[in-house]
Amino acid sequence: MIEAENLVKNFGSICAVDNISFQVKKGDILGFLGPNGAGKSTTMKMLTGFLPPTSGTARIGNNDIQKEPLAAKRLFGYLPENGPLYQEMTVLEILNFIAEMRDAYTTNKKNEVIEHVVETCKLRDVRNQSIETLSKGFRQRVSFAQAILHDPPCLIMDEPTDGLDPNQKKQVRNLIASMAEEKSIILSTHILEEVESICNRVIIIDKGKILIDEKPEEMRQRHPHYNAVEIKLGNTKLAEIKEEIQSIPEVKEIQINGDDILIIPKGGKDIINIIFDVTLKNNWSLANIEKAPVLMDEIFGDLTQN
Ligand SMILES: Nc1ncnc2c1ncn2[C@@H]1O[C@H](COP(=O)(O)OP(=O)(O)O)[C@@H](O)[C@H]1O
Ligand SMILES: [Mg+2]
């Protein structure tokens, strides 16, 4: 388990992290979301012992990272924000170096785990290339490989898909999702879609404070257009249509935009069947009906604008 308890970090007069607490349990994939400068990386550096907190405690598997660093460090893998160091080392050299530092392996086992991450992270073709000659996508995969090398129960990843193309992003997300059940995972991102596709919990922070801590689906429900229905009709008796739809008790508001009609329910109610029945009953020629997409960025913007 990964635990932050009242973590605070001040840099001079800047309060980067302002009393943050949360726990990440086995099976959790926590998306740590927030705009640039929100305090995500600073929080992760405190969790992993790279920065001492101004106050508060970070624990990995019940070990205080400041007081019992060795016990804590065995239990996690960390993918830092700036990717792998040691530019002149090759991929295999770096993985060997990390494996030796991790210290827990006999020579045989070491080769086996390296072989395994080279395979999992698709690094075979570049294994003898130095880090400085790799593209951002491959560097990120090397970072990922060193983080999961010792198969730790906890993973702390700072923007693991940053700089990857859409296809690579998908691969990394799948890889993370495939390890989820057995691990406690926290990953930072500023991509809402990422949180929706792999996380089962989301914390949004801004200016060093937690704004929400909930399930992605609950976050979705904050949207003012949650469960809104979009219809397109073949006929143009718009005034009549508007009046009829407006009279449905579950409907809060109707917005007409050319051919597109957006119907917003009261209290986020699921009204798609009700709307469908009304169009049938009135013989409106229905060209299309669907739930309006929820633009997560609008929620994010709403929460972090003040
Ligand atoms: N070493 C540092 N010295 C001074 N200020 C810092 C330092 N590291 C981060 N900060 C400041 O702390 C705040 C949070 O930064 P960071 O944790 O990197 O945010 P995020 O990762 O969410 O983008 C920012 O205002 C940043 O400028
Ligand atoms: Mg950051």
Structure notes:
The protein is an alpha/beta fold and 306 residues long. The chain has eleven helices and 14 strands. The strands form three sheets. A six-stranded mixed β-sheet has the order 6-7-8-3-9-10, sandwiched between helices. Strands 2-1-4-5 form a four-stranded antiparallel β-sheet. A four-stranded antiparallel β-sheet has the order 12-13-11-14, with helices on one face. Helix 3 crosses helix 4 (107-120). The longest helix has 14 residues, at 107-120. The two termini are 33 Å apart. Residues 40-41, 81, 158 line the site of magnesium ion. Magnesium ion (MG) binds next to helix 1.
Number of helical elements:
11
Largest sheet: 6 strands, mixed
* Spatial order of the strands forming the largest sheet: 6-7-8-3-9-10
SSE order, one letter for each helix or strand:
EEEHEEHEHHHEHEHEEHEHEEHEH
Low-confidence regions: none
Q: What is the average of the pLDDT values?
A: 90
Q: What is the H level of CATH, i.e. the homologous superfamily of the largest domain?
A: P-loop containing nucleotide triphosphate hydrolases
Strand content: 25-35%
* Count of extended strands: 14
What small molecules accompany the polymer chains? adenosine-5'-diphosphate, magnesium ion
User: Structural class of the helix and strand makeup?
Assistant: alpha/beta
Rg is 24 Å
Architecture (CATH level 2) name of the largest domain: 3-Layer(aba) Sandwich
Number of domains: 2
> Which bin fits the share of residues in helices?
25-40%
**Spatial shape:** elongated
Tell me the CATH topology of the largest domain.
Answer: Rossmann fold
